Amino acid sequence: MELNLQHVEDACKELYIRALKLLPDDIKEGINDLKRKERDARAQVVLGTMVTNIAVAEREDNLLCQDTGLPIYNVWIGRDVQFDGVQLKQAIRKGCERATTEYPLRSSVVHPITRKNNHTSTGIDMPAIHIDFMDKPGVIEIEMIPKGSGSENNSFLKMAIPAEGILGVKAFVIESVVNAGGKTCPPTIVGVGIGGTSDQCVALAKRAATRPLGTICSDAEGAKLEKELSTAVNQLGIGPQGLGGDGTAFAVHVELAATHITMNPVAVNMQCHSARRARASIGSHGIEYGF
Hints:
With 291 residues, the chain is an alpha+beta fold. The strands form 2 sheets. Strands 2-1-3-8-9 form a 5-stranded mixed β-sheet. A hairpin with a 2-residue loop joins strand 8 and strand 9. It is globular. Helices cover 39% and strands 24% of the residues. The chain is built from 8 helices and 9 strands.
């Protein structure tokens, strides 16, 4: 299949806008579930305000949050898809720019030294584009994740050693959540990466943080750790927006990679309560949108 690059550009524009305006059903249900379980009266009010904010944003066709975040596009390419890689990158970048200038959105992207904002949500090596491959014929899938500063600023990496063991991993995750406190706009999804190289470990944590609620780690030991850490994090009492309560996190998600015999890297990345994401499938069927 020859990839239609205009479809890619159009989808990347639409995905940015949809991700900022439409919350996936699993996140909406996650907030409602925490509200039903919450024992703290103030936390119940905070969660109720979040529910109202979501409803108003959808009714008024507004953004869920003023922070449009750093634009991140995750791309999975199926079998037998033909394309020019440079043109694919240009189409993704163009779609990101069009969302920002035509909708229009606030551009949150600046030069890292001059702090100049060209108001296109693009810049040096931005948007972030991650490409992987999948075993589906004739289709590519694109996921858009706008990562706001509240959650992204609270990202942590520790190059632990094997002697620290799993207890060291657990302690680092708990310490990271405590240090983040209310700055990530909890309740959060706490993404944990374990293993790989340093850069791979951070990428694993972000993949874990943006996984849909209700999914579990494909590795049995990772899934077990998710349960233990989810319970522990919600016993910290940080609560919604850091004002106290039971609902500090929707869940803790864990992703794993094999690593070096003398290494034990662990990374933490979090999603705020507006855990925004949008997804599109592009193929001979045209463009299909979802989450």
